[in-house]
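ok so dumb question maybe but i'm new to this and my supervisor (M.) told me to 'just get the structure for non-specific serine/threonine protein kinase' and walked off. so i did the thing. is this what she meant?? sequence i used:
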Amino acid sequence: MWWLPPCFHGGNAAKGEGRDHFDPNPVSPAAASARSMSTATSSTITAPSGSDLTGSINASDMSADSIQRPQQYPSFADRPANLRVFTYAELRAATRNLSRSLMLGEGGFGCVYRGAIKVNAGAGDETPPPMEVAVKHLNRNGLQGHKEWLTEVNVLGIVDHPNLVKLVGYCADDDERGAQRLLVYEYMPNRSVDDHLSGRAIGTTLSWPMRLRVALDAAKGLKYLHEDMDFQIIFRDLKTSNILLDEDWNAKLSDFGMAREGPTEGLTHVSTAVTMKLLHSDTLYHVL
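this is what came out, is it supposed to look like this??
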């Protein structure tokens, strides 16, 4: 079963620790007509133990038509308190109509743009400056992109760690061109580790002490996912292009589209399909 993003209520995922969640005054359900996403695949995501999940959709019951015209579910308005729901119009405005001059990256999943969103001020407070964000606009065609969009909302909507990229919010709108699926992340100005190692980030190099720090930061993020929560999340896509650097050069894991829940109680392992590119994997991994 696919678990809808709004069914995740931001709670205390870490063992024995209270955590503050980002809550930039989410818009009301009436202001953002968010709709559910379904996919015609037999893959499943189950509810992590200890989480507050309610309601689900059986993805195998959905037709391909439902990808382009998602069915609306009442539970979608009951979104996580720590995620903000955006309209497609809001995110187009935030990225200057998805301007190519603001494009940060492009891949099979779609494009990522730099943008700025408004942050609502509290009563009597001055209007805060816009927040810089990275907006991922997923391709409308293909089941895999929709599946990964939903997985990212499910996972990043309930985790909170300084070495994991923060998901600010998401968009699940329909327009005349079909379903629009977007993700809004905190902006990481120092790009990815891969950009620095490959020379695409001109003018900067990663010293060996910095590389060690990056490795330790990535390990801390993985440890949190694997050991420090009431349930386990298996990242499954660790590579230098998925390790981003913030303004202070702290490393954070990104791109949780391949993630899945770890072993349930009483089990010691989870079997998964190969997800990494052959170029990055050990030959024996495929032989065995």
